[in-house]
Amino acid sequence: MKKFYLVAILISLIGILTLCLIATTQKPQFKPISQISSEDIGRLITTEGKIIYKKIHPSGHIFLTLKEGDKTIQVPLFKSFLQNSIFKHVYFKFGQKIRVTGVVDEYNGILQIIPREESDVKIYD
Amino acid sequence: MIEILFFTLLGVGIGCITGIIPGMHLNNFLPILIALVPLIGVENTCSLIISIAISQNFFSFFSSTFLGAPDESTALNVLPAHRLLMEGKGLSAIFYQATGALFASLFSFFLIFVCFSFFENFYSITRPFIPWILILVTILMILSEKGFRKLLSFFITLLSATLGFITLNLFFVKNSIFPLLSGFFGVSTLLISLKNQVNVPKQKLKIEKSLSKKSLFLASLFGSLSGMLAGLLPAIGVSQFAYLFTFHNPSPEFFLSVSGGINLANEVFSLFSLFLIGNPRSGASVAIEKILNHLTFNHFLIFLNVILVSLGVSYFLLLYLSNFFVKLISKLNYKILNLLAISIIFLSTLYFVGTIGILILITSTFIGLLTNFFKIKRTHCMSSLIIPTATFFLGLNPIILKFF
Known about the structure:
The structure holds two protein chains of two kinds.
Chain A: H1 2-25, E1 29-30, E2 44-56, E3 62-68, E4 71-77, H2 79-83, E5 97-107, E6 110-114, E7 121-123
Chain B: H1 2-20, H2 30-34, H3 37-40, H4 42-66, H5 80-86, H6 90-126, H7 130-143, H8 149-168, H9 177-195, H10 213-232, H11 238-245, H12 252-277, H13 283-291, H14 297-329, H15 334-352, H16 355-374, H17 383-393, H18 397-401
Helix pairs in contact in B: 1-4, 1-14, 4-6, 4-12, 4-13, 4-14, 5-6, 5-12, 6-10, 6-12, 6-14, 7-17, 8-16, 8-17, 9-15, 9-16, 10-11, 10-12, 11-12, 12-13, 15-16
């Protein structure tokens, strides 16, 4: 029975370590805004576009809309994200090109890309 | 109207099959159902989805009771439904889960209409406390073990939380929660049953109504309240809530009535929250939100009827089929039945999640097996969802991600 414990613990740990290795080596896929669809929900994706809309929510979130061609995507920068980053709303200007890496989600039928940490957002100019 | 009734009954039939087969879940084939909209229309597709969601919940009581039964020595550490099954009371286990579910759903209608205006406020007020409530639940679960087992359950909590955190952050893997939970609670139970070469005792063909009407009423009411709370507190599982009420009445019949009630009340609450507060809280309600561009009061009335018909038909169909299945199970080779269930879970994981899913499934299965070896509650494995949810609400996920 003791061998069973050890084998089970060992396999659990090996499984966790292997998955951890896979998680750390996963690279986000680059997709232009026009190619992002609801099929990508839950996936880690990098995209880029120009800021065409900015809304500052009273509770401290910033909502950006990026446009590329005739397609748009929303980029919510939540309060928790902003608190752990250097970004302030004045950093984001209309027409500015930014590159965002984040997890694709959908809210009220609108596709969003949610950055996880500061390095997920890059301002070009 | 007849068309809607037809699709509701069809949904109950489909839910009956997907509920019985382990590893099948409505969320896995929602894209197929959404694609039916141009063929059968908006209302019919929504009715189909709602009735499958309700019926599947009822018929899942079937597989959770009759599959993966433990041997007598470990029966006390495992699920109350299996405990009754090993006493020859499988039919009673189904009856109490289904009856608790039916009444809790009916209570939910009343509670939802009374309380719905508070839901949005309640959620925004409680949101800052959610991570702390989740952490408190985890600590209470560990402390509920005796002596040295507290330390062992802490170890399992740590393993499960780490696995959950990594799994939920594998962004190229879809449906990763499926193998995670199937391993913890499904395959590990089935393997133990296989190892111990369990033979299911002859089942009594009469339901033993050992629970008083008052207790059944209370269990359904608790189930209904907890079902709503489970919708507001993400990641907390049905069993955590149900265990809370075993302090009131520790009998397995009471536990099963409460847990059956939570399952269905939570589903009904999830469907109604879309109509009442415009916030979908389950796979089915997200799909309905996608299908319906504009939700009218007429839709609301139609779907209310669909839910009521699905509840009634699923309840009686489940009790009728259970009677038939109880007679059949003693004639079937239980070992083959369990092996078949394991194979279905493995194949579903491979199809819906991919090879990484198999790795998640194997890892979570072994952690699930450890709970059995350590003789501690399997529900500690729910930390795989509770802890990552708590860290998400605390805004710690990017910080924790740096450690990986």
